[in-house]
Amino acid sequence: MAVRPSIQPLPNSDFVTGYPGIADTDPAIAGIVELRSRTAGLPFKVRSVSLKLLRNDEIFRRMGRSTKFETSYAAVVLFTEQKYGSEYLALDLPFLYSLNYDGADLPSSINDPDYVKMEYTLELTVESDSYPALKLSRPVSIMNYSSKRLNLNRIEVAFSNYCGSREIRGRLSSDWFGPGDVVKLHTHVTEHSYTRKTIEIKLMLVRELYIGDSKEPTKTDTILGTEFWQKANDGLEFAFTMPFSPSSSYPDGPNVGINAFSIESREFSIRYAIILRYKFDTELLNLRVPVKVSPFPDQVCEPLWKAICDAAASRHSTILPEDTIIRAQDDVSALKTLNFVLRNGNSRIVIE
Hints:
By secondary structure, the protein is mainly beta.
């Protein structure tokens, strides 16, 4: 095709504006589609220009197998030919692609080679009567901020279960944790018989992968660095630091994070749980306590939540520049936007 397309963010800006997942901040992808001739000075023909967002998921199973999904979001038309056969020297088409989707419809970008890879791309389609349709993709990283983790309203999680004549109770210090946060858990066992016996308790942090609506995990890994046994007749306090991988990163914070945080999407889910394994002489009981893992540690949540609240209160709309459309028959002054000049009265266009 005679045209060379590109997708650029707005000047001095990232592609994503606002905070995806927080509707009051008007989240969107903002940028400019630029169309130029592959040969400077030669006009090209364009019938339409459209843009859409794609999400590509690859779920890694065991034995080297993987499952791939593609989700297509709404397409927006940026340009349609007004007069058949028109020729152009340049098109600059600013766009604002809304990201007002909830967490399940727009989960955060993620790349964990052991579990799942989720990537977003902007797909540009340029159509012409003279050439086959031209497609161009540009990757975009999206973080969804709808997690209740950010507003710092911690909810203590209580749990209980019975094993014969024993009652197991406990509490977890919060329902959300980020990388590097300290997880505190208290548990105790009440004997409803006359005999009090020493118990052993083992704690593990596991990560589980669920496909679709499956009730059972496809994959389970123990990710807590240390597994340990403790003996106790009464209450027992556990405390450990949520592990993190220095190779991953997230916005608005230091370069630490976990590769696969808690995600709920229509195709798959990544969930975390603390497994408590109680051993009573010859009896063994496993207790599962669900816990949510965020890419944001405590030190990041407060300033990030303040920035989100300020953005929602001010609600400044992204201002786009006007379209720039330069036709082949436009006068010389219009060509200055392309740094084109006519030299020595010659009608040949050269780059200054």
